Amino acid sequence: MARDGTATKEKILDAGQQLLLKQGYGGTSVDQVIEEAGITKGAFFYHFKSKNDLANAMMDRFVKMDDELLHELMDRVEKLSHDPLQQYLIFVGLFEERIRNMDQPHPGCLIASYIYQIEAFSPETRQAVIDGFDEWRRVLVGKLEEAIKKQKPKLPVTASQIYDNLLSQFEGGVILGKLYNNTESLIDQINQHKNYVELLFGVHD
């Protein structure tokens, strides 16, 4: 019976992601991944040709899981409300709830970690990093564009600018959470974005 290498491959991906989020791509070696995963060098190179090949696979897996989370939450949101602004605000609330239920501080965004050292990656990986943001931007900017059509914000702003604020608040909150070793910093930043959107559209007026 042929051995199924899926479990070993996942161990390598998990180890690589954990190390990369902790010490960056440049500071992570194949030998460190092998040691962290508790496998042999032969097992590593059976699944991945190089460190860059591993980086590509980690990005593909991360984007897939990230997009699954997006659509899982959005499916719930669209069952709770038909109003685009309320859908967006409920989505942000569910996202915040998901983070609040984590036992440990958020480990960080793999896409952001790649961007910090984008020059170290191949053109294919760089494009995958760019593509990694596309689905979240497409879905959430779409909701915000619908909201702006229905109700003019109190200040001149575009849907993309509002979404970029969420992205900035999230990434900044992750950095603060790592600095202070807590989840509250990230939760606070996401709530601040929600407050900003509510004020922008006069939700409580």
Characterize the overall form.
elongated
The topology string of helices and strands comes to HHHHHHHHH
CATH superfamily of the largest domain: Tetracycline Repressor, domain 2
Assembly level: single chain
Quickly name the level 1 CATH class of the largest domain: Mainly Alpha
Proportion of residues in helical segments: over 70%
Largest sheet: none
Number of strands: 0
Number of helices: 9
What is the level-2 CATH architecture name of the largest domain?
A: Orthogonal Bundle
* CATH fold naming of the largest domain: Tetracycline Repressor, domain 2
Low-confidence stretches are none
What's the number of domains?
Answer: 2
Question: Taking all residues together, what is the mean pLDDT?
Answer: 91
The helix-and-strand class reads: mainly alpha
Terminal residue distance:
67 Å
Rg over CA atoms, rounded to whole Å, is 19 Å
Descriptive overview:
This protein folds into two domains: 1-48, Orthogonal Bundle (Arc Repressor Mutant, subunit A), CATH 1.10.10; 50-200, Tetracycline Repressor, domain 2. It is built from nine helices and no strands. It has helices at 6-23, 30-37, 41-47, 51-80, 84-100, 110-116, 123-150, 159-180, 184-200. The model has no long low-confidence stretch (mean pLDDT 91).
